[in-house]
Amino acid sequence: MRLLLASASETRLALLRAAGLELEALPARIDEEGVRGALEAEGASPLDVADTLAEMKAQKLAERHREALVLGCDQVLAFRREVWGKAPSPKALRAQLLRLRGETHKLISAVVLYEEGRPVWRHAGEVRLTMRDFSDSWIDGYIARNWEAVRHSVGGYHLEGEGVRLFSAVEGDYFTVLGLPLLPLLNYLGQRGFIPT
């Protein structure tokens, strides 16, 4: 079956293609901030926020492509009782990183798969990340050097880049940090016969 990724994430697309999958990326535009705000106001958990956003993306694309398998993904950062998305500016990213300095936060990456216009599988992965006690001057330089590369990343970092220097510990699956619980997804696709095993 045709596989569609309801995301503009180049990282997710690259991960799936590197794993040998043939697919297309067709971003599904939804009001992520509005949905996140409404869910938070209702007391939704970070996992529920990520899962709902992933499903909304998959559903929107699946409505137009019922013949395809549609993969919706989303990632949120959970810190204390807050759920964060992408920082809108370098100034906002600086404030976020300074709040996370020396602290542990979670990244939750959700994936929902639609088949014939309905959800058939979902999974959410969670990773705990502890930031080191970096200096104000180092973080200013980090943001200046990396803003364009990380502006579309929850948390404002890439572990595959200089962002790895923000951390003293990472507990969990590397692919989940990158925004896609890849191994559970590949296992499901293989079990269903969508990919050779």
From TrEMBL:
Record Pfam families: Maf
Compartments where located: Cytoplasm
Names of required cofactors: a divalent metal cation
UniProt xrefs under Gene3D superfamilies: 3.90.950.10
Active site: D74 (proton acceptor)
SUPFAM superfamilies from the UniProt entry: ITPase-like
Reaction catalyzed: a ribonucleoside 5'-triphosphate + H2O = a ribonucleoside 5'-phosphate + diphosphate + H(+); a 2'-deoxyribonucleoside 5'-triphosphate + H2O = a 2'-deoxyribonucleoside 5'-phosphate + diphosphate + H(+)
EC class name: hydrolase
Family the entry assigns: Belongs to the Maf family.
This protein's name: Nucleoside triphosphate pyrophosphatase
